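Issue: ligand-bound run for C2G - logging full I/O for the record.

Environment: standard queue, default settings, no custom constraints.

Inputs:
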Amino acid sequence: MALKRILTYGTFDLLHYGHIRLLRRAAAMGDYLVVALSTDEFNAGKGKQSYYDYETRKEMLEAIRYVDLVIPEENWAQKATDIEEYHIDTVVMGGDWAGSERFEYLKDVCEVVYLDRTPGISTTKIKENLELNG
Ligand code: C2G
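Outputs:
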């Protein structure tokens, strides 16, 4: 049976159990998981600045048993190329992306699956709680 290859996108800043549970479930859907990690420049273009820089976020993702390869996400337009270049069968994202035109069009070239987000945790929530508690 051919190896099933999974791809997901994200910033994965201040890595937390919501990210880990997404990665674990995505990895369980196939045999090989590629994570396309938002670069600092790509995030800047979205008006976002992560707490940890790309190299640090990459290092942390590469330490996760579920992750087989980390590649840079540099723009919105690379996804179809990523799918071709890495022979991806399925793109997996959290449910906040369900139905998004950023991902729905990929259904022409691969399976697209949205998984439930883990409730009660987000990078923003962590930052807010840390600021409150000083
Ligand atoms: N996630 C989750 N549960 C949470 C928080 C995040 O399942 N409580 C999922 C998100 O749905 C996403 C992944 O973890 O699939 C990474 O989360 P972010 O780093 O916030 O990803 P995002 O900023 O949405 O980047 O091109 C698309 C972007 O790169 C996606």
